Amino acid sequence: MKTLTLSAPAKLNLFLHINGRREDGYHELETLFTFLDFGDELAFTLTSNQQEIVICGDTAGIPLEDNLIYKAAKILEPYKKIAAGVDIHLNKQLPMGGGVGGGSSDAATTLLALNALWQCQLTIPELAKLGLQLGADVPVFVEGKTAVAHGVGEQLEPIDIAQKWYLVVAPPVHVSTALVFTHPDLPRNTPKLKSGWKLSDTGNDCQTLVKKLYPEVEKTLAWLLKYAPTKMTGTGACCFAEFENREAALRVLETLPSSWQGFIAQNTSESICHRQLRAWQN
Ligand SMILES: C[C@@](CO)(OP(=O)(O)O)[C@H](O)COP(=O)(O)OP(=O)(O)OC[C@H]1O[C@@H](n2ccc(N)nc2=O)[C@H](O)[C@@H]1O
Ligand SMILES: Nc1ncnc2c1ncn2[C@@H]1O[C@H](COP(=O)(O)OP(=O)(O)O)[C@@H](O)[C@H]1O
């Protein structure tokens, strides 16, 4: 049976503003999502047992039913046009729950891959709508374009931005997204950006609170700020420093304290998963 191997790229929130809170408790965001040319890798192989969805490789210690890859496959199953099961091999590269969207990206790549392999023939907007049930960050990975997002993160306006090199650092701490968003000290009233805004006018509204709750994140930001402009991505804990070229980013990566995980990558206007899928279909 044929195997389709696709990336599940990381994302960065180059800024994250919280404009308000909805009745259902979710927050209205204004954020700039961009993808990195580094991420998880998923290999999809159709199998003859049409009832089976098997996940192997790095199951990341997550029970099958909680794995966003499995959830994505199950949500798509009713639309499949061919009688086949699937084996999904995960090569985990991204830190879990770090604000780089690893789980959401895995889910989106699974929706895109199985839409093709199972010949579901759903459109990208239909897949993105399904993806929203799995998490607020899944739609942007399904659409696959660097974009300013509003709503909970599903209203996407593609945007062209400069290509940079990023050093992404994951301190050894797990930040709970739900804890941050339900915390009384989280600012929730940043006004929407006016047209002509510049990245220098923006920030991450979760950063001050997360620095206070998680000293490791404060240390990481302070350390990286010695070398380059730095922000936290999403609700953290990952932080990213921006460089003009690979050599400058690599030099700092090489001096990273051993207790921190880090990688360098370039941002891309289109998710590499989409590029790979197009090449496979042609
Ligand atoms: C904060 C962001 C920014 O890109 O990214 P991460 O830090 O997770 O990478 C996302 O909005 C996270 O989206 P996602 O990771 O899918 O969060 P979800 O699982 O949907 O939600 C986890 C919890 O966060 C809160 N939540 C999430 C998104 C949002 N716009 N408002 C919220 O209040 C809710 O309490 C929800 O129960
Ligand atoms: N395949 C997966 N990879 C990573 N996280 C997963 C996966 N499946 C479920 N999860 C859960 O989703 C959470 C992280 O979701 P994710 O979108 O990666 O958020 P973040 O942007 O914070 O990394 C993890 O804490 C983990 O419990």
UniProtKB/TrEMBL annotation:
InterPro entries: GHMP_kinase_C_dom (IPR013750), GHMP_kinase_C_sf (IPR036554), GHMP_kinase_N_dom (IPR006204), IspE (IPR004424), Ribosomal_Su5_D2-typ_SF (IPR020568), Ribsml_uS5_D2-typ_fold_subgr (IPR014721)
Known catalytic reactions: 4-CDP-2-C-methyl-D-erythritol + ATP = 4-CDP-2-C-methyl-D-erythritol 2-phosphate + ADP + H(+)
One GO MF term: kinase activity
Every GHMP kinase N-terminal domain range: 67-144
Domain GHMP kinase C-terminal: 206-260
Record keyword Nucleotide-binding present: yes
Keyword Cell membrane: no
Entry's EC annotation: 2.7.1.148
Record key words, sorted: ATP-binding, Isoprene biosynthesis, Kinase, Nucleotide-binding, Transferase
Broad EC category: transferase
Residues reported to bind ATP: 95-105
PANTHER family (UniProt xref): 4-DIPHOSPHOCYTIDYL-2-C-METHYL-D-ERYTHRITOL KINASE, CHLOROPLASTIC
Similarity annotation: Belongs to the GHMP kinase family. IspE subfamily.
Stored NCBIfam families: ispE, PRK14608.1
Summary of the function given for this chain in its UniProt record: Catalyzes the phosphorylation of the position 2 hydroxy group of 4-diphosphocytidyl-2C-methyl-D-erythritol.
Protein name: 4-diphosphocytidyl-2-C-methyl-D-erythritol kinase
